[in-house]
C-alpha cells in the first residue's frame, strides 16, 4: 500500500466535509472529515478548514479536487451549474479555482448540474461527481440510477450524459417528521439500529399502493401508535418505508425493467432495494463514498 | 341582544383554547381565548385556565361543554373515542365529567372519534363537533365535507353518522417546510398576506396533476428560487397550492360531483375552493368557529 498521497479528493457538503488522500496508484492513503459543512461556515473560513483537514498530511504541493456545496453561491466560490443534458466527462472543464487557499494547494471546485425546464427546475451539487464515479465503476452504464439521501436524486444517463434528473426530499422529510412534527411522539426510539421489518414492510406496501396519499398516510403513524399500540420502532420503520416507497412509486416511469444502481448508504439502500423488488426491479448497491472518490479521480483526469 | 350567558361553549385545541358565553336564545354574549392549549399545560392546570377564561363573566352556576383535546389521554380527562360509523347525534352520551373544576361549573368534555380499520387508522378530536354543527347549519346534509387545517379532515356523513374520515397533515407540512426545512430560505416573506396568485395557481396545477410526486415537487420551490429568481411570495403561494391540491387529488374518490362544505378559515378555504373548482366541484365555505359553536349547542341539547 502506498504511503504518500499525491493529491486530495474532497466532498464538501452542506453539513459535513470529507477528504481523502489519494496515492499515485489510486489507492486511498488517508481519510478525514469534520462537520464544517458549507452551511456551518462563512466564505472566508474555507481555506482554514481545508488546512485543518489536510495540512498535516500534505506537507508539500498538492492538487485538491472538490465537489459539492463548496461551489454553491454561498460556498467558497460559485462554480456555475452545467445544464442538462450534461456531459459527465466534461465536469473538469466547468471547474473554478477559489481564492485564499494555502500557496502549496492547487484547488479546483467542480460544478453542479441544473435542469431549467419549466415545471421541472432542479439542482444538484456533488451527485454529478458520484454519477461520473458510477460510469467508472460500471463502464458504459446507461439508464436510471438512484442516489438515496437527504435530497435523493433519480438520474437518467445516456452515452455518458446526465439527460434528466429529479430530486425528492425523502431523507429531509423523515427528519422533519421525526424531529419537529406531531409524529415525534411516536418516534422516540433509537433510529440508527436495524429497522422494524413489519413496520417497514407495511410502509413500503402503503407507499407503493397510494403515493398520492402520502400526507394522509404519514398521519397514520400517529393514529396507529394511539389506537393499535404500535411501538416507536414499528412507527419509525413504517414512516421510513412509506417515504421511500412513495418516492419510488412517483418515479415508476423512470424504471424500464433494468437493474438500478443505488448509490448511497447501506442502510438506506436496503429499503430502496426492498421497494424496487416489489416492483420486480433488481438493484445494484454501490457505496456512496466509493462513487464520490471514483468521480473525483475521473474528473481530475479529464 | 341578550346580555347574560346561560352556559359556556369551549373548543380546547392543542395550541389554543377558545370559549364563548351563550345566552338562552342561542346568541353569543362573549368570546374569549388564550394560547393555553392542551399541549402547553398539564392535567392539573385545566381548572385554573378555565377560571382565568370565564371566571369573571360567569359569576353564578353554569354548564360548560368542551370539545377537542381536553378529552385526550394527555388532556384534562380522557373521553374515550367513539368508533366509526359514529352517530353525531349521540356525542353527548360519550361525554365525561372531569375533576377539579370550580364548584359552580358543571363541566362536560365531548368524545373524539376514531377509525380502527387496519391501514386506515385515524383519529379526530373537535372536528366531530364541527360536523355536528354542519348538520345543524345544513339540515339533512349527506356526503363529503372537508375541514382544512393543521391536520385537515375529509369526512363522509350519511344519515347523521360519520361513516369514515381521512386526515392529511397539509397545514403542519407547510409549517414544517417553512420553519425547519431547506425551503425556509425560499420562504422568508410574510405569509399572512394575500397569496401570490401565480405561485398558487402553478402549485395547484402541479399538485392536481401529480399528487404522487409531492416529495419531488416541493423541492422545486427551492430550485425555482435558485434558477428562475422566483420571489418568496411566489414560493410560498406555490408550496401552499401544491400541498392543498395534493390533498384534494389524493381524495378524488371521495368526491361525487356534489358541492362540498369547507369548514375552515377563509384564507385556507379559498385555496381548497380553487383546487376543487379545477375538478369541476363547487364548495360551500362555512366559518369554523360558527360550526364549532353550533356543534357544542347541538351536543348540549342531546
C-alpha end-to-end distance of chain A: 25 Å
* CATH class division of the largest domain in chain A: Alpha Beta
What is the CATH third-level topology name of the largest domain in chain A? Nucleotidyltransferase, domain 5
In terms of quaternary structure, the protein is homodimer
Instruction: Give the integer mean of the pLDDT values of chain A.
Output: 94
User: In the CATH classification, which architecture of the largest domain in chain A applies?
Assistant: 2-Layer Sandwich
- Report helical residue fraction of chain A: 25-40%
What form of chain A results from the Cα inertia axes?
Answer: globular
Number of strands of chain A: 14
The largest interface is: A-B, 46 and 46 residues
Please indicate the count of domains of chain A.
2
Strand content of chain A: 15-25%
Radius of gyration of chain A: 20 Å
Keywords:
5-stranded mixed beta sheet, alpha/beta, 302 residues, 24% strand, 4-stranded antiparallel beta sheet, Nucleotidyltransferase, domain 5, 34% helix, 14 strands, homodimer
Note down, in words, how this protein is organized.
The structure is a homodimer of 302-residue chains. Chain A is built from nine helices and 14 strands. With 302 residues, chain A is of the alpha/beta class. Chain A folds into two domains: 7-125, 2-keto-3-deoxy-galactonokinase, substrate binding domain (Nucleotidyltransferase, domain 5, 2-Layer Sandwich); 168-286, Nucleotidyltransferase, domain 5 (2-Layer Sandwich). In chain A, the strands form four sheets. In chain A, strands 3-2-1-4-7 form a five-stranded mixed sheet, covered by helices on one side. A four-stranded antiparallel sheet of chain A has the order 6-12-11-10, covered by helices on one side. Chain A has a three-stranded mixed sheet with strand order 5-8-9, with no helix packed on it. In chain A, helix 6 (219-227) runs antiparallel to helix 7 (232-250). The longest helix of chain A has 19 residues, at 232-250. The mean pLDDT of chain A is 94. The interface between A and B is large, with 46 and 46 residues.
